Amino acid sequence: MRVLIADDHALFRDGLRSLLEAHGVDVIGEARNGREAVDLAREHRPDVVLMDLSMPIMNGLAATRLIAAEAPEVKVVVVTASEDDADLFEAIKSGGKGFIPKNLEATEFFRLLDRVGRGEPALTPALAQKVLAEFARPAEPATPSPGTPQSLTEREQSVLELLVSGVTSNKDLADRLFVSENTVKYHLRNILAKLQVQNRAQVIAYAMRHSLVDNPDS
């Protein structure tokens, strides 16, 4: 297996390279940021890119999207310290073939890496369950309204209605929807992107201006 490491921390790259090479894995290069990862993936076409999320110049999600689009045969696996469900969902949506926490034991890490080599997703059982819960549930798009750049999913519409009704904190939204706060953040990111606005106040104003929800009672 030919692997490219992308991480902005030199000590982590060195440690991961040593670990991989000790297990017979061919490390063909190291990238310090997402832009270098994309360039090296183009040049060397590794089997797997082990991609950190938080990097300068270009973050791991943007790099994952580019590699997945330009070289779909290259499998990108996110290796991160993030425990945010939204990062997990975005990594998979961006074309990532796995999501490996940095605090994982080495034996489990190589088990997941072997799965990637066989064309299977690299997800721990707990993370796989979260992905299935988020993406396997049938999502019915909300009825498109005039002026909406992109229609919202049913769950995003629910978040929007709660925002307009005055429920604006992540905790309160999560309690109302029976989901985690990280899942709420994920839906909010999608709403901001789809409505092309910058913050929650603008979301509420946009929704009321374009009648995306029924007028609240109060």
Task: Give the helices and strands, then pairings.
Blueprint: E1 2-6, H1 10-22, E2 26-31, H2 34-44, E3 48-51, H3 60-70, E4 75-80, H4 85-93, E5 98-101, H5 106-117, H6 125-135, H7 154-165, H8 170-177, H9 181-195, H10 200-209
Parallel strand pairs: 1-2, 1-3, 3-4, 4-5
Report what the structure shows.
The chain is elongated and about 60 Å long. A 5-stranded parallel β-sheet has the order 2-1-3-4-5, with helices on both faces. It has 2 domains: 2-134, Response regulator (Rossmann fold), CATH 3.40.50.2300; 154-209, Arc Repressor Mutant, subunit A (Orthogonal Bundle). Helix 2 packs parallel to helix 3 (60-70) and helix 8 (170-177) crosses helix 9 (181-195). The chain contains 10 helices and 5 strands. The chain has helices spanning 10-22, 34-44, 60-70, 85-93, 106-117, 125-135, 154-165, 170-177, 181-195, 200-209; strands at residues 2-6, 26-31, 48-51, 75-80, 98-101.
What tags apply to this protein structure?
218 residues; alpha/beta; Rossmann fold; Arc Repressor Mutant, subunit A; 2 domains; 5 strands; elongated
In percent, how much strand structure appears in the residues?
5-15%
Instruction: Identify the overall geometry.
Output: elongated
Number of domains: 2
Separate helix tally: 10
Catalogue the unreliable spans.
142-148
Number of strands: 5
Provide mean pLDDT, rounded.
85
Which secondary-structure class do the elements indicate? alpha/beta
The CATH C-level name of the largest domain is: Alpha Beta
Rounded radius of gyration (Å): 20 Å
Order of helices and strands: EHEHEHEHEHHHHHH
Q: For the largest beta sheet, what order do the strands appear in spatially?
A: 2-1-3-4-5
Biggest β-sheet, characterized? 5 strands, parallel
CATH architecture of the largest domain: 3-Layer(aba) Sandwich
Helix content: 40-55%
Q: Please, what is the CATH homologous superfamily of the largest domain?
A: Response regulator
